Amino acid sequence: MAKPFTVRVTVRVYETDAQGHLNGNVYLQHAEHARWELLRAAGINQGDLLKKGVSPVNLETTIRYHREVVAGDEVDINCVFVFGEGKSFRVEQTMTKADGTLVAEVFNVGGILDLDARKLVSDPRECFRSVAADPAVAGI
Question: Residue 111 belongs to what domain range?
Answer without folding.
Answer: 5-138
